[in-house]
Amino acid sequence: MKPNAVLSLLQDGQVHSGEHLAEQLGVSRTAVWKQLRKAMDEGCQIETVRGRGYRLLQPVDLLDEADLVAALADDQRRRLSLTLLEAVDSTNAEVIRRWPTAAGIPVCIADCQTAGRGRRGRTWQSPKGENLYMSLGLTFQGGFAALDGLSLVLGVAVAEALESLGAAEVGLKWPNDIFAPGGKLGGILVELQGEWQEGIAQVIVGIGINVHMNDAGGVDQPWRSLDLAYPEQHWSRNRIAAAILGRILACSDQFAGEGFAPFIEPWQSRDIFRDKALRARDGALAGIGAGIDASGNYLLDTDEGRVAVRAGEISLRAAS
Ligand code: BTN
Question: Deepest in the core among 48, 189, 249, 319, taking most CB within 10 A?
């Protein structure tokens, strides 16, 4: 029986008898009960209706390969080698492990991560069932030299995907943090895996999007989830994953063919730092946000003129 098989039958919010659930799944009633017990232990609210069966009290958003695949275009689906997991250390690490045997672009999505990684060595909070944790492995001709701007292209792809599902005013914080009004909605971790063959760069792209989270102890910056920022929309992790995969495939194909130029304007129009007082280089550089250059570096207008920031963190300067 699949890990969430019972929950997926209860998703309609109706009462289902143990006998009927067992029959539909072709398993014993004990097996059904065990899965219900595990779900309840993990915080799922299931009511036992005396003499009738079980009912889910709160909607759950289960990861489901069939749902996800159904939301992808045929030509994109065929290119992917998809793995959905209940738990993993990090989906980025899993993509690296699976890459050698994957038939197609390896994609890994997990319901939770036990060692989720953020940029700059940070931890990425990855509670079970609440958010999207997804990684994929991409290859590019031309070696690492051809990857200038890729990380920003990925930010544009994710922003466009969320907008296509109804998120308004999605912003980008250089290089590729995803913002909703009120705080950070998600992040992208790009890891270079080494040149696989001469001139072919392997890139692991890890995407974390806060979907249903409404409490995040330990997150040290303002954050939002899709549910909190856009409560009028119904957010499904399967549909979000499919939309993001679709946009990433389309944008990375375009990037491979045409380079970074077509993405400059889409990135600039979402820049949350434009015209803001900023600091970079661990506070050593102060200036006003002036957008990106043709290589994807961030520009600061400083007292000494315009300076391009190539790496590191840029943040808002506290008003003095
Ligand atoms: C950031 O620090 O803003 C980037 C966060 C990236 C988190 C995602 S979740 C899926 C993938 N697996 C990881 O371990 N990290 C990325």
Answer: 189
